[in-house]
């Protein structure tokens, strides 16, 4: 199976800094690349990270504030210039379709026909393997969740005990039974892996729904709690709130990002301290060009 990992291309909030580029996140997932919120400079960050246009299969925009979408023209034109042949699915809020059109056709270039558009409407939408939920921000914004379907893990010792071997194993997996032996007798449930991407928002039900049970949660933490009132006014989360979400959701790995320009690397311990008030799992404070693996799949150790 191909790797599942997050490649961080940018981690700044509204204003980039010397050390943080505007947003950009490529989630590699079984040979598919999900590029979320390409901000200004994303194409160059991709080059630094060793990411090419052919790695992009999904282009997902949460909302149309500049730090989340001004990299779209460069990415689209690079897809065209490099003659990417596979389909690229573009997902974005339908209310911002005029902004999408302007970004999609921001300059003269030899266009491509591989991009298929999926404008999102309503409080909840499903597009292929993605689920989108409307968040709480001054402009319409959506969070995204990537969910692998649940399956079953075959137990070789149980197969051997029941005399199932060779081609019969495949028949059992496809049909659910062979020679009176059922798949349930030879396997245990295997939960599907999941990742959620939650950018600019206040706390709301959709945040918790997107995050619930995730293996990897990438979430904004624009401010520390001292700016909680300011964060709420402008539709953002604090590090403390991100920790609360991760704890309630029982996420397995929390990634904080989208840091206000008022904070530097020296402030990272304060972000971690706020998260630790409620969440005790693995935490990554994202930095540009970092790679974060999706946690290994949960395994059942006992047979029901």
From TrEMBL:
A molecular-function term among this protein's GO annotations: zinc ion binding
- Keyword terms, alphabetized: Endonuclease, Hydrolase, Metal-binding, Nuclease, tRNA processing, Zinc
Residues engaged in binding Zn(2+) 2: 67-68, 200, 258
Cofactor(s) recorded in Swiss-Prot or TrEMBL: Zn(2+)
Query: According to its UniProt record, what is one Pfam family this protein matches?
Result: Lactamase_B
Q: What's its catalytic activity?
A: Endonucleolytic cleavage of RNA, removing extra 3' nucleotides from tRNA precursor, generating 3' termini of tRNAs. A 3'-hydroxy group is left at the tRNA terminus and a 5'-phosphoryl group is left at the trailer molecule
Where in the sequence is the active site?
67
Name of the top EC class for this enzyme: hydrolase
Mind telling me which residue stretches traverse the membrane in this protein?
A: none
Q: What is its EC number?
A: 3.1.26.11
Keyword Zinc listed? The answer is: yes
Report the protein's function: Zinc phosphodiesterase, which displays some tRNA 3'-processing endonuclease activity. Probably involved in tRNA maturation, by removing a 3'-trailer from precursor tRNA.
Check the record and name the NCBIfam families matching this protein: PRK00055.2-3
Task: Describe its assembly.
Answer: Homodimer.
Which PANTHER family does the annotation name? ZINC PHOSPHODIESTERASE ELAC PROTEIN 1 (PTHR46018:SF2)
Identify this protein by name: Ribonuclease Z
